Amino acid sequence: MDLLQAREAYQRLSPRESSRAAVFPHQADLDRYNASPPETQREYLEVMEALLTWGDDWERNTAAPFLQNVPTSPDLLGRLVEVYVTQGRDDSDPLATLLGNSWFMMSDDQFDKLRDVFLRDPGRHLKIAQAVLRHWPSGIAWDVAIRVARTTGDVRVLESVFNAAFAAQRVPDYHAALQGLPEPLLREYASRRRPTEAAEFLRAVGLTP
Predict the structure, then answer these.
(1) Cα–Cα distance for residue pair 107/167, rounded to 1 Å
(2) Residue 169 CA to its chain's centroid (Å)
(3) Within 13 Å, how many C-alpha atoms sit on residue 10's CB side?
(4) Residue 124 DSSP class
(5) Residue 162: in which H helix or E strand, if any?
(6) pTM passes above 0.85
(7) CA 120 to CA 14: how far, in whole Å?
(8) What is the predicted pLDDT for the residue at 26?
(9) Where are the domains of the chain?
(10) Assign residue 2 a region: left if phi > 0, alpha if psi is -120 to 50, beta otherwise?
(11) Mean predicted confidence (pLDDT) in 91-117
(12) Residue 69 per-residue DSSP state
């Protein structure tokens, strides 16, 4: 299915409330998908894959959360990995979040492709690091992620690396690695944690809660 066919099919599948003015169009799409027969569900998947592959920003931001919340096949996931790798996608694209959260379905080959992209330019690919570090919780990928965290002044980067460390089940190691960063940055990061987690983190990096 090409982009023109996908747009025509989406207009047919989606009523007016799923227009570009809708705040969460994917939720209405999910409701219709779940109430649809198998053949319509298959068409929905084809449409959303095409929108995520070739669509504009609105279409990608509609398709990605939809695909993250419906059963997808390993073949579809493999094609989306190829899109990410070959089209130069990065953290600015909703596909990055989708792939980062899809580690439980990935094959070794798909992990390898995402790892290679991450290692070439880690600062642009922190969202897929969730999948990469889930598969390789130690080694070069972990070291690179920590280096990114220790050389940033952006709390959003610390948040992204936290998500990867959480996927790797290494949050205490991650927090220990942040010791010595500027205190205002560490306190801003702590302010984004729950109160008990914030206090524990601040103690771990040598600061008073």
Answers:
(1) 17
(2) 17
(3) 30
(4) G
(5) helix 155-167
(6) yes
(7) 40
(8) 74
(9) 1-71
(10) beta
(11) 95
(12) T
